[in-house]
Amino acid sequence: MYRAVDTIFEPTLTDLLDEPIVRLVMASDGVEPGDVRALMNRIAARRRAGKVAAGGVAAAPRPDGAARPARAFDGAMRSLEACCGA
After folding, report:
1. What is the value of pTM for the model shown?
2. Is 73 inside a domain boundary?
3. I need a labelling partner for 44 at 20 to 30 A (CA). Which of 3, 50, 62, 67 fits?
């Protein structure tokens, strides 16, 4: 059985970084797409390492390198808040 939430599209990091308005804001802040990707990769690696250390199973990365939606994004946001005060 499918829930309504199962059919909602969650954009990937690539989708977000390809948005013109996102590019404009990043440019005004002096941020490059590669900087965002590197930050997200570091956060994902720390989260995977933490899950494995806690006895969990690390999620396999997607073939396109995109972050898994919803839960991965929530974790990334918590990490950004912790390290950057966002």
Report:
1. 0.51
2. yes
3. 3
Range of the domain at 46: 9-84
Question: Which has more confidence, 68 or 26?
Answer: 26
How many domains is the chain partitioned into structurally?
Answer: 1
Say if CB 63 and CB 72 are below 8 A apart: no
Residue 17: exposure state from Cβ atoms within 10 A (0-12, 13-18, ≥19):
middle
Tens of pLDDT along 45-65?
888 887 766 665 555 555 565
Average pLDDT, the chain: 74
